[in-house]
Design brief:
Layout lengths: L4 H7 L5 E4 L11 E8 L5 E8 L5 H37 L20 H12 L5 H18 L9 H11 L1 E2 L2 E2 L2 H20 L5 H8 L6 H4 L3 H8 L4 H11 L3 H13 L3 H5 L6 E2 L4 E4 L2 E4 L10 E4 L8 E4 L6 H13 L1 H7 L17 H13 L11 H12 L4 H8 L8 H6 L2 H27 L1
Antiparallel strand pairs: 1-2, 2-3, 4-5, 6-7, 7-10, 8-9
């Protein structure tokens, strides 16, 4: 190693960024962090984050880490030198000098792995680390990426290949795609390329050359597509009243929409809701499950199962005024009258709030398609998806005066800068939201009654 310890430490003297952690510890304090890049034992560039309670201790901790690394590198170099010397002496004793050239190691062969093969290898290890539904989403992204670069060899990838692929997915029939979807594709492909680097199919320099400065087109960044999508997912009080009047003839459709509108649940969360998790006395319901895709091991297994919700924040309490539990009461009575409750016991679903007419789990896709078919039989001027009530819940509560942070907690969004313990134990939002939810439901009801009179 050519540099002395002092020279090695001076290389990092002005490197790294110092910031305060967003997470709050149990004692109410937040740690200070320093993030910096360094060359590891194998010469690869790595990123290190060191934290400390006191900002002044950061550089000292960084220097200690680099000092230990310096001496570890020296130790390995010395051991390597001793081993090379031993091999040289052994070769001189056994192998004639004339044959030494012929015994030189062969040149390294270029990697022949394609992007398609690399992605499939990556998914083999990725599958066991995430929910099955997340894995299926990743497979969809893989198909899109491999549609452009699947046959390209990893070793032959260039910056232009990556950028052209991003340019291609950024437009759908000439219209800028949503920024979030393009960003997701770019991030996931970078992750696969890092996997290729870990497999030594790419060097660190090659990885940097491919991914550095890849940008999302300006037209996508400046597009109002996200705002248009948000507007398309929203229905105001009058529109909701009209839709409810159209589906009142099918009480399962009607009650499902009413419950989703006053709870803000994801469809999968509602279809997996257990009756014992509805708490009328404390005016809340507890969300701990969702209907998710099932990785079928045998042909006779169902396509869906009751699994975990979207993320940790999704396990939560949702406020619901006592007056609005009437929707659950009517739904349970309907379940009994239609025979669904009796059928549900045959499949072990007797404790679910709602099941199909055969007693099995309901999937949001089939239920939503049937709902819209029913609406179209009445009119071509209205439509709704099962995800729309959740967007309406957030927007309409805001319009009647509820706090944004309370709404975010109710729908299971983790707030930035709030420690997990505080987030889980602070339940004041449950009480604060109750009058606003009641007011929102009353305004929906008023528009529903007006729509009925217009018929």
């Amino acid at each position: 190693m050519g540099l002395s310890l002092r020279e090695e430490l001076e290389r990092y003297q002005n490197s790294g960024s110092i910031y305060q952690d967003t997470r709050t510890k149990k004692d109410g304090t937040r740690s200070w962090c320093i993030a910096f890049y360094y060359d590891d034992i194998n010469g690869r560039k790595q990123r290190k984050v060191i934290s400390a309670g006191n900002r002044d201790d950061l550089e000292e901790k960084r220097d200690k880490f680099l000092t230990d690394l310096y001496f570890e590198k020296r130790r390995m170099l010395e051991e390597r030198a001793i081993e090379l010397e031993r091999q040289r002496k052994a070769a001189e004793q056994v192998v004639p000098y004339s044959s030494a050239v012929s015994m030189a190691p062969p040149a390294k062969q270029p990697c022949s792995v394609t992007v398609q093969e690399a992605y499939e290898k990556f998914l083999e290890t990725y599958k066991s680390t995430v929910a099955y539904s997340t894995y299926k989403t990743e497979c969809t992204t893989k198909n899109r990426i491999c549609g452009y670069l699947g046959r390209k060899k990893v070793a032959e990838l260039e910056y232009d290949d990556f950028q052209k692929m991003i340019n291609a997915v950024s437009f759908e029939d000439g219209i800028p795609a949503p920024y979030s979807s393009v960003f997701t594709i770019m991030s996931k492909f970078k992750r696969v390329l890092r996997y290729c680097w870990q497999k030594k199919w790419l060097t660190h320099d090659e990885l940097d050359c491919i991914t550095a400065n890849v940008k999302i087109p300006t037209a996508v960044k400046n597009s109002d597509r996200a705002e248009q999508t948000k507007i398309a997912k929203f229905r105001d009080f009058e529109q909701l009243g009209e839709i409810l009047s159209l589906v009142e003839g099918n009480r399962f459709y009607y009650l499902t929409l009413r419950i989703l509108l006053v709870t803000g649940l994801r469809p999968g969360e509602f279809f997996a809701l257990k009756l014992e998790n509805t708490d009328r006395e404390h005016e809340r319901i507890y969300i701990e499950n969702a209907v998710t895709a099932n990785e079928k091991k045998k042909d006779w297994e169902p396509n869906v199962k009751i699994g975990s919700p979207k993320n940790k924040g999704s396990k939560r309490y949702v406020p619901l005024p006592k007056e609005l539990f009437r929707y659950f009461d009517e739904l349970e009575e309907l379940m009994k009258q239609s025979g669904r409750r009796k059928e549900s016991y045959c499949y072990g679903n007797g404790n679910l709030a709602i099941v199909s007419n055969r007693g099995t789990l309901i999937t949001a896709s089939s239920f939503g398609q049937n709902l819209n078919t029913y609406i179209k039989s009445k009119t071509n001027k209205a439509s709704i998806t099962l995800g729309i009530p959740r967007h309406c819940y957030q927007e309409l509560l805001d319009r009647v005066g509820a706090k944004d942070s309370d709404i975010e907690r109710s729908v299971g969004h983790v707030l930035p800068g709030i420690g997990n313990k505080s987030y889980k134990t602070n339940e004041a939002y449950l009480t604060r939201l109750l009058p606003y939810i009641l007011e929102m439901d009353q305004r929906i009801e008023a528009e529903y009654q007006k729509a009925r009179k217009r018929k």
